Amino acid sequence: MFVRPAGVSDVERVAQVHVLSWQVGYRGLLARSLLDGLRAAQRVPRWTATVRQAEWPARGVLVADDAGEVVGFASLYPSVDLDQDPTGVGEVGSFYVLPAVWGRGVGGQLMAAALGTFGAAGFTSATLWVLETNTRAIGFYAHRGWEPDGAVRDDVVGGVMMRDVRYQRKLTS
After folding, report:
1. Helix 11-25 with 40-52: angle, nearest 10 deg
2. Which of 51, 87, 99, 107 might form a disulfide with 24, Cβ 3.0–4.6 angstroms?
3. Would you say the C-alpha torsion 93, 87, 124, 173 has a positive or negative sign?
4. Per UniProt, what is one Pfam family of this protein (predicted)?
5. What is the number of other CB atoms lying within 10 angstroms of the CB of residue 63?
6. pLDDT of the chain along its 173 residues, tens only?
7. What is the total count of domains within the chain?
8. How far apart are CA 90 and CA 114, in angstroms?
9. Which DSSP symbol is given to 37?
10. Is the separation of the CB atoms in 130 and 141 below 8 Å?
């Protein structure tokens, strides 16, 4: 398994990983009808545009590639939060790994590559947002040095108000 920048040819698989990760990872946290109604084809336009807008190393999508199969991805860009300096803070906008490979080190390798990419871009810290009830993801991030920084935001997902918390970590040079 290795991590590499995503190309347009990876977009359909990125969308599939995105949907499958949501359907398993958010089960019990989001409405079942919302999760069951997700379709990868609906996410392809978004991921196509995101991949095409890559400006490495500050912006792009990394994929975890296992023998030519995309099994995870991370979307990276300068922070868009108004209280953050986009020249110094990178944001992990999306971070998902195929549920079939959870616990096999894919997420750890992908996160290490994301942090290395942020360092190459000159960022000194990184942030990400996570659903406050997503204890699995929070545990994963905490184990890798991420900490809540006190920022919260509310989001409506499937007609239900949800709260996200922001996590941050300093980057080592």
Report:
1. 130
2. 99
3. positive
4. Acetyltransf_1
5. 25
6. 999 999 999 999 999 999 999 999 999 998 899 999 999 999 999 999 999 999 999 999 999 999 999 999 999 999 999 999 999 999 999 999 999 999 999 999 999 999 999 999 999 999 999 999 999 999 999 999 999 999 999 988 878 889 999 999 999 75
7. 1
8. 10
9. T
10. yes
